[in-house]
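Exercise: predict the fold of this chain.
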Amino acid sequence: MSAGPTPASRTVAVALILLGVGATFTSMNIALDQYGRWGARIFPLAGSLSLVALGVAEWWGARGRPASPALNRAHLPAIAALLALAIAYVWVMAQFGYLISTAIAAPIALWIFGVRNVIGLCAAAVLCPAIYHLVFFELLGVFPPLGRWFDLLDVFGGY
């Protein structure tokens, strides 16, 4: 007979499930597009339901698994840096729009993950906003978040 989930894995599983359920309800508040389709709601909803699925998988996958060793805290600074970057990214996006905020955040995120090639970081600053803009705003028709103070899309004549 297998033992139940360890207390730590149970806590992680419950946290994932609760976050997923909360995010699912929040995602359902995103307005439908002008044609009555789910539009911008589909990606947050898929991510939210994925959190629920991961929580359930964690709950069931942890059964019978021996307790994990002590928590490795070596990655906590990178986790804190990513959290700070995410908060700053949202704030900069609200003020300066999607293109500028993504051009700043993409190379910083890559730097946190260990990329040190200057050419690669500079390429990410240009390619990430361009490719994401093409996929989400042009091909999928999602309306881009515009900046309150300044937006590069105004210069390009976008929206």
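Check your answer against the key: The chain has two domains: 10-61, 76-156.
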